[in-house]
Amino acid sequence: MEIKKIFNNNVALTEDLQHTEMVVMGKGIAFQKKKGDQIDANKIEKTFMAPSVHFANKLSELMNEIPYEIMVISKDIIDMAASDLHTEFNDSLYLSLADHIYFTIRRSKDGLPVTNALTWEVKKFYKEEYQAACKALNLIEKRTGDRLPSDEAASIALHLFNARQDGSKMEETMRMTNIVNEVTTIVKYHFGIEFDEDSMNYSRFITHLRYFAYRMLRRERNDDDNESLFKQVRIQYPEAYECTRKVQEYLSRQYQMEMTKDEMTYFMIHVHRVSNRETN
């Protein structure tokens, strides 16, 4: 691959024989190189296909501020999480996660508190991401000798989940987490139950809630409602309907969000499943 632009000793913009541009990252990969030189493929540790100029510049800027070892740790965490979660992440995660880990380590060494107010919710609602984040803490400790507080696993889990959502903003992910927590609380108190968080019905319910909250925050609506199905489910599951009505009133008052008839229908079905299991 031919070098088209050098950002620093560890990052360069290259072009292959098919004229495909990519940013490559590797320890000393561009050291004493110049435009037009060939890259040693054995030194490439990460490639970013068809990158934007903004992304390449941001990566270069970040690598001038953050030790290369932290970038490698972040890459390994992302690769490990991608394998565990059977997913792919947005390239932007390499920037945000490395930046986050580096400054968290610095804060911890300076004796500043590392906390996350959403740790409890993240452990409940994003179990797979949280487990991957716990493994990330072990990897960080193994590589750096720094053991970060357990709350940091929640922060990393949010970064992982956020990167699975087509680049949605972290603020949006945190709002979505709050909505899921608030809605489950309404359901729990309406039926006077405690959820079996290991049950399949609860897992399906939470998955439905997460994507429901995601669509609501994005104002994504499907107004082609099935009125007859809504009426049928409302009659069949009257308690689930009453609970759904409470949720609708809360969302309208707190977030100015309105559920469609289809959303209410599927919410009733999930609420009935999860509440019926716990009641029985």
UniProtKB/TrEMBL annotation:
UniProt GO MF annotations: RNA binding
GO biological process: regulation of DNA-templated transcription
UniProt keyword list: Repeat
Identification of the protein by name: Transcription antiterminator BglG
InterPro entries: BglG_antiterminators (IPR050661), CAT_RNA-bd_dom (IPR004341), CAT_RNA-bd_dom_sf (IPR036650), PRD (IPR011608), PRD_sf (IPR036634)
A Pfam family the protein falls into: PRD
Domain PRD span(s) in chain numbering: 65-170, 171-280
Top-level division of the source organism's lineage: Bacteria
